[in-house]
Design goal:
By secondary structure, the chain is an alpha+beta fold. It is 22% helix and 33% strand. The relative contact order is 0.18. The model has no long low-confidence stretch (mean pLDDT 83).
Amino acid sequence: MPYLKVGSLTRFSRDQVISWLEGQESDQEEESILSIGDYRCLGCGWVGHVERPRPLSEIWCPKCGAKAQVEAA
């Protein structure tokens, strides 16, 4: 992001900061949430169980280590 140094201060454009913040909010809203149930790893086929709803970014396979690559079993 472009900025301007004024002495020891760093200044940013208000419009660019607001645009960046809006992008951060939309990224969080689009994150997939897995509901409770059984899931299969697309990498190795291992089947596991999710006991509470969790973001897809937190899911990884304990067998092969693949992250966020699952389908409902």
